What does this fold into?
Amino acid sequence: MSSFAVFLDRDGTINEDPGYLGDPNLVKLLPGVAEGISELKSKYEFKIIVISNQAGVAKGLITLQQVESVNKKINELLSEQNAGIDVFYYCPYHPLYNNDQEAKCRKPSPYMINKAAAENKIDLSKSYMVGDKATDILCGFNAGVKSILINSQLTTDEINILKKEGKTPNFTTDNFLNAVNFIKQDFNKR
Ligand SMILES: [Mg+2]
It folds into this structure.
């Protein structure tokens, strides 16, 4: 039996993004994230899957172990509020530092979503991608899922990039719980 997923960007969507986050002690969950994930899982049985670019590894700024320890810390913090990420996918490569074959996982490529869908029996027809950057939304478009932009800084940069590409997210908000509410309403409509 297949299930549905909410794919989440990590830095800037789940947790504060200080840039190339490598120290688990610096992990800070953003407001409403634990509560929202908990609701999506318990009431709607969504799989929650992280889809993250971690080019800091390719650039030598952080290690794979640091990426993993930050992921682990995120799940520790979420578990305190009855939430959690089911699976983490991340792309540690960058086209300037790695070959095309390696870097093909990098968002906006749909590679990680497609891989996650195959490995976790996810039905993409009722799945969603949530992120704070234009690349997240484009990744959602490329994978054929609905997309939600969390634009917490209230800047128009990401929105303008998407407008230029002619690819507007299905919903834009400044916080995670609004994104969850959109998903709930949209999911119930179908
Ligand atoms: Mg982000």
Observations:
- The chain has a mean pLDDT of 95.
- Residues 5-189 form a domain with the Rossmann fold fold (CATH 3.40.50.1000).
